[in-house]
């Protein structure tokens, strides 16, 4: 590695790019695979960063900062851009003052997402330019380029990554610090900034004029480049797909589109004319392919390249040359190893209870979505951020009395603040009958422990206001509010059952910190251990699905040899190293077979 | 060929695969190679099967290893070795931690942990190096250093010398964990010989 070079992930590189671009205000909501951009940016001097309660808020904050004349940045994952779509479409009309760049990370293959959507469609729909880097080094350069384009063309600019850019590490180099020539301002310019219909109609024209200029720019920008090679096949590609093409067909001619919208029609046409066969290779939607075909240019695309999931070099090669498919060693049949809640996770206790109750559980997005998996299997729907509350309300209205006492929605603290609270307002206002459980583990956990408005700390770990969730629920009109300790399983179940017996909207806040919180990790864990002589093999604790507890099967001879009843099929064993000392298993054991170590 | 090596790390979320792959990557970068590494964060990390893919050579384009092209598999858990057989080829090498971490279906007694897992791997003409990384890490003073034990065993098969790996551990690992990680590396290196 060269002196001064850095081994950075795409997200670290993007944060450095934003820093070098002189970003002054940045706001985002965590979402895999975008989260580490804002986390890393928060460590640089000279930039204000924050976690917003949701992506719409984050983008609006960035729009405001741009209006005030600084370079501003918003980050989110693909589904977050749906939430931020409202300001996005109109920010295309207002344009910017300070450069405004929106980073959006797609997740082909859905490694950590509920759907597989292609954010390039937003660039088309909102009439915004989008840059589409291939690797960490390019991602950093493209962020800087995006800010220059934003100010030159008076437009927000989208930069898109995917998991295989965001979470890929590569070698990058530091660059020059840049700054904006735009000055701080509070200048009023209603025709540009107040999108009344009369003003918006004028900006609508500006928008088309700007797109025409951007189309011309796309023809000349260096980020759209032709790599001359064997002309029997020419590939048009962008994003990480470019890397797969380079490896699968190193000799071929390639038109690499670093800017995926608007498209350089003349360049594409010239490239198409220069090759015998034109092939478009892209992940997710046939975005380039459809637009190229609409230009009247013949090309091959998703009739051979898969539309679903991630690509890789082998998939690209085989799609185009089916005979090249390698013969692979067969995958043996093995037990699956799906993700699981951590040992000591407070969510587990609540889902254990829900699994024993005859209820429909409307779930939401977070670690607790894992409550849908066996052995707990206690989540019956999950659509998007905030939908736990609203789906339960919709079911309550559809089912009427039939649903009384049987509808539970489950949402995390961060997700509740993101977009659950508006649903709760609706439930109360429109007379729902359902129980809302807010699983308050004091952190945005799934994305790697980010602070949120309920955690009491800001992005830098400095003390900040902590929303009082009880008071918040009370303020929107909920009168039936209880707080439980999710680790105390039987007591929590009693409170849950009682709440379900009452009509109207009930809220139970299940409060216990995530075991991955730094302050929890620093605590000395006193694990629980077995008093094996007392275990009757009832399997109550095994049913928790805790990674620290395993079922040890016994033959009848082995059972007798251990002093158990002949019929006892096995016993439960706690792995002390994995145990986080939550004590949920203890609250379920009726036979005094579990004790705190040393007691 | 611009890429000279493909190393696949597999294991269970929480086993420290990322640190192990980082130490390996830095050792290769210091030796002058280009490299790319791909990982997956988020839901996949919560105790599920995880991988990190490290590729190095003169110039690396794709961050993903093609199925059938991994030269080395470093499996941090016994069952997570055969799971990735389709990534390997005859002549590949597997360094496997023989520790068993029970997946939920086994831990809850729905199914049992498969037997003879490594025989199936060896039957494919793949070299297997077995390491009891958990026990070696415990001897070194910290069970969590099992990941660095694995790097120690892996170091025999990297185009860099052991000192290069040790120097990375010395500069990249926080000071309070340095000694135990150096011991873990040495133990792994001895066991992998």
UniProtKB/TrEMBL annotation, chain A:
Cofactor binding, note field: Binds 2 [4Fe-4S] clusters. In this family the first cluster has a non-standard and varying [4Fe-4S] binding motif CX(2)CX(2)CX(4-5)CP.
InterPro entries attached to this UniProt entry: 4Fe4S_Fe-S-bd (IPR017896), HACL1-like (IPR045025), IorA (IPR017721), Pyrv_Fd/Flavodoxin_OxRdtase_N (IPR002880), THDP-binding (IPR029061), TPP_enzyme_TPP-bd (IPR011766), Transketo_C/PFOR_II (IPR009014)
PROSITE patterns, alphabetized: 4FE4S_FER_2 (PS51379)
Superkingdom of origin: Bacteria
UniProt keyword list: 4Fe-4S, Electron transport, Iron, Iron-sulfur, Metal-binding, Oxidoreductase, Transport
Binding annotation for [4Fe-4S] cluster 2: 546, 579, 582, 585
One annotated GO molecular function: 4 iron, 4 sulfur cluster binding
Essential cofactor(s): [4Fe-4S] cluster
Transmembrane segments: none
Ranges for domain 4Fe-4S ferredoxin-type: 525-554, 570-599
Binding positions ([4Fe-4S] cluster 1): 535, 538, 541, 589
GO biological process: small molecule metabolic process
EC number: 1.2.7.8
Reaction(s) catalysed by this chain's protein: indole-3-pyruvate + 2 oxidized [2Fe-2S]-[ferredoxin] + CoA = (indol-3-yl)acetyl-CoA + 2 reduced [2Fe-2S]-[ferredoxin] + CO2 + H(+)
Subunit structure, as described in the record: Heterodimer of the IorA and IorB subunits.
Role summary: Catalyzes the ferredoxin-dependent oxidative decarboxylation of arylpyruvates.
Protein name in UniProt: Indolepyruvate oxidoreductase subunit IorA
TrEMBL record, chain B:
Source taxon at top rank: Bacteria
Oxidoreductase in keyword set: yes
A Pfam cross-reference name: POR
A single MF term (Gene Ontology): oxidoreductase activity, acting on the aldehyde or oxo group of donors
InterPro entries in the cross-refs: IorB_Oxidoreductase, Pyrv/ketoisovalerate_OxRed_cat, Pyrv_flavodox_OxRed_cen
Keywords for this protein: Oxidoreductase
Keyword set includes Magnesium: no
Sequence ranges assigned to domain Pyruvate/ketoisovalerate oxidoreductase catalytic in this UniProt record: 13-189
Signal sequence interval, chain numbering: none
Name of the molecule in the record: Indolepyruvate oxidoreductase subunit beta
Protein source organism: Candidatus Desulfatifera sulfidica
């Amino acid at each position: 590695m060269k002196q001064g070079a850095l081994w950075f992930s795409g997200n670290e590189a993007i944060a450095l790019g934003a820093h070098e671009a002189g970003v002054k205000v940045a706001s985002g909501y965590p979402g895999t695979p975008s989260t580490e951009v804002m986390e890393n940016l928060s460590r640089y001097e000279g930039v204000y960063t924050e976690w917003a309660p949701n992506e719409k808020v984050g983008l609006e904050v960035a729009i405001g900062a741009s209006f005030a004349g600084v370079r501003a940045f918003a980050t989110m994952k693909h589904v977050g851009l749906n939430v931020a779509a409202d300001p996005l479409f109109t920010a295309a009309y207002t344009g910017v003052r300070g450069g405004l760049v929106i980073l959006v990370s797609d997740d082909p293959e859905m490694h950590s997402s509920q759907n597989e959507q292609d954010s390039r469609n937003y660039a088309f729909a909102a009439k915004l330019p989008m840059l589409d880097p291939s690797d960490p080094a390019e991602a950093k350069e493209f962020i800087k380029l995006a800010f220059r384009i934003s100010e030159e063309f008076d437009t927000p600019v989208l930069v898109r990554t995917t998991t295989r850019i965001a979470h890929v590490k590569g070698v990058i180099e530091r660059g020059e610090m840049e700054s904006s020539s735009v000055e701080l301002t509070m200048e009023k310019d209603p025709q540009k900034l107040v999108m009344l219909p009369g003003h918006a109609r004028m900006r609508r024209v500006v928008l088309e004029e700007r797109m025409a200029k951007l189309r011309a720019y796309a023809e000349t920008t260096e980020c759209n480049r032709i790599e001359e090679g064997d002309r029997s096949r020419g590939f048009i590609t962008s994003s990480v797909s470019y890397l797969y093409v380079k490896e699968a067909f190193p000799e071929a001619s390639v038109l690499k589109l670093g800017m995926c919208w608007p498209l350089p029609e003349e360049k594409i046409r010239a490239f198409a004319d220069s090759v015998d066969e034109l092939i478009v290779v892209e992940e997710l939607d046939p975005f380039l392919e459809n637009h190229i075909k609409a230009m009247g240019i013949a090309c091959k695309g998703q009739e051979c390249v898969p539309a679903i999931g991630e690509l890789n070099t082998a998939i690209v090669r085989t799609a185009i040359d089916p005979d090249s498919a390698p013969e692979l060693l067969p995958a043996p049949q093995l037990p699956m190893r799906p993700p699981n809640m951590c040992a000591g996770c407070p969510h587990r206790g609540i889902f254990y209870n829900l699994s024993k109750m005859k209820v429909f559980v409307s779930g939401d997005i977070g670690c607790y979505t894992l409550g849908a998996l066996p052995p707990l299997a206690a989540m019956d729907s999950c659509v998007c951020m905030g939908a736990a509350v609203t789906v339960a309300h919709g079911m309550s209205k559809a089912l009427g009395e039939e649903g009384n006492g049987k509808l539970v929605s489950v949402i995390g603290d961060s997700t509740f603040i993101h977009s659950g609270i508006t649903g709760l307002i609706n439930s109360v206002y429109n007379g729902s009958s359902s129980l809302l459980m807010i699983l308050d583990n004091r952190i945005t956990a799934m994305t790697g422990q980010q602070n949120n408005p309920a955690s009491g700390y800001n992005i830098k770990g400095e003390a900040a206001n902590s929303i009082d969730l009880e008071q918040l629920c009370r303020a929107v009109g909920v009168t039936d509010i209880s707080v439980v300790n999710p680790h105390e399983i039987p007591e929590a179940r009693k409170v849950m059952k009682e709440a379900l017996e009452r009509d109207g909207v009930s809220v139970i806040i299940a409060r216990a910190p995530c075991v991955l919180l730094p302050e929890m990790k620093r605590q000395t864990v006193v694990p629980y251990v077995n008093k094996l002589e007392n275990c009757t093999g009832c399997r109550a604790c095994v049913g928790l699905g805790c990674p620290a507890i395993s079922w040890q099967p016994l033959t009848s001879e082995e059972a007798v040899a251990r002093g158990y009843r002949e019929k006892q099929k096995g016993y439960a064993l706690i792995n002390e190293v994995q145990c986080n000392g939550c004590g949920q298993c203890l609250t379920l054991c009726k036979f005094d077979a579990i004790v705190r170590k040393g007691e | 060929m611009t890429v000279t090596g493909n190393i696949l790390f597999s294991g269970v979320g929480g086993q420290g695969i990322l640190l192990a792959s980082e130490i390996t990557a830095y050792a290769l970068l210091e030796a002058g190679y280009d490299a790319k590494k791909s990982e997956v964060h988020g839901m996949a990390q919560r105790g599920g099967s995880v991988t990190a893919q490290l590729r190095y050579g003169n110039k690396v384009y794709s961050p993903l290893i093609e199925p059938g092209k991994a030269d080395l598999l470093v499996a941090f858990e016994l069952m997570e070795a055969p799971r990735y057989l389709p990534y390997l080829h005859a002549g590949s090498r597997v360094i496997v931690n023989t520790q068993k971490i029970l997946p939920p279906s086994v831990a809850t007694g729905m199914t049992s942990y498969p037997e003879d897992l490594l025989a199936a791997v060896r039957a494919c003409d793949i070299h297997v190096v077995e390491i009891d990384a958990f026990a070696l890490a415990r001897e070194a003073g910290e069970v969590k250093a099992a990941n660095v034990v694995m790097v120690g065993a892996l170091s025999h098969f990297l185009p860099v010398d052991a000192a290069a790996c040790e120097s990375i551990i010395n500069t990249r690992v926080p000071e309070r964990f340095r000694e135990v990680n150096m011991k873990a590396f040495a133990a792994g290196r001895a066991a992998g010989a």
